[in-house]
Amino acid sequence: MICVNRRWHPLSLAKLFVTALFVATGLAGSSSAQNVGALVFPGAEDIPLPHQKGHRFIHIPKPYVRLDAVGTIGSDYGSYDLSSVRTTLRLQTPVPLDHKSALLVTALFRYNGYEFQQPAQLFGPGSLSGDPVDPMMLATGRVIGFRALGKRWGIFAGAQVAFDWESGGDATDSVRGGGGVGLGWVWKERLAIAIGVGVKSRLDRSSVRVGPIGRIEWKINDDWKVETVGLGLAVRRRFGDTLALRLKGRVEGYTFLLKDRGGSFGAGFFKDRSYPILLELDWHPYKSLQVELQAGIDIKRRIKTEDQTGATVYEKTADSPAPLAGLRLKYIF
Hints:
Number of helices: 2
Strand order of the largest sheet: 3-4-5-6-7-8-9-10-11-12-13-15-16-18
Oligomer: single chain
């Protein structure tokens, strides 16, 4: 067991979380590091972590189906306000191979709706016409496997295919792929780390990106846990077996292929990058059911459009933070 310093206090953890979040936000927002988020392999949260417990080295989660809905209310862009809703249906199932190996299969579909209170010139001068974009869709299939190499070490490898397109456009034109490999390490059931390298194709460029991938989970004690969440950090406090609170901050970025609007713009791209901070109340009324309420703020948000050549046509950052609210329902089989 890891020897935990008794001087750790919830206030100290909160200070650590806020400091790390603002450092990450500053790095992700700098012009020299705009590609950092893009290099994080999608699905990093799904990387199986080694789990040194009993006869099985790998922690294999139970299959589940999950529905998420998160809304941003009135992001202020000066001449207009933008509200959005993101609804996600996610299915995941493990495939145990033996006591040292397992696969994790995930399918995901996401609906992104955007409502502009006033028209915006997203496609250049003269393009003011109500809500300028139709709902954006995302569909992903992913497989990640893990193989134990000993009591503390293991290897993982994964691959995925994804589609990101505007409703009314051609989804097949938005296909992209990615994958990654790496090592996992566990220490005394308290600290688990997975780190490696990933590669993925870009939707907005005819190129691929290579960069780091990883996941960290630190169980400070039976009630407190710190973990990475994509390009972000979360602190979780458990209250008994049915209730928990989690403070989470991360960088989120999406790029969608727009339908062909003709002219020089053609089939361009819509980009949405945000920096939400959420407080999540996690309630398990039954072992098979999880209900999660979410509330927070989007501390910074930027939308951008590019034409079919990748040239920037419109770019705007919200003038102030905007409130967030969400609900998650998860059924565990």
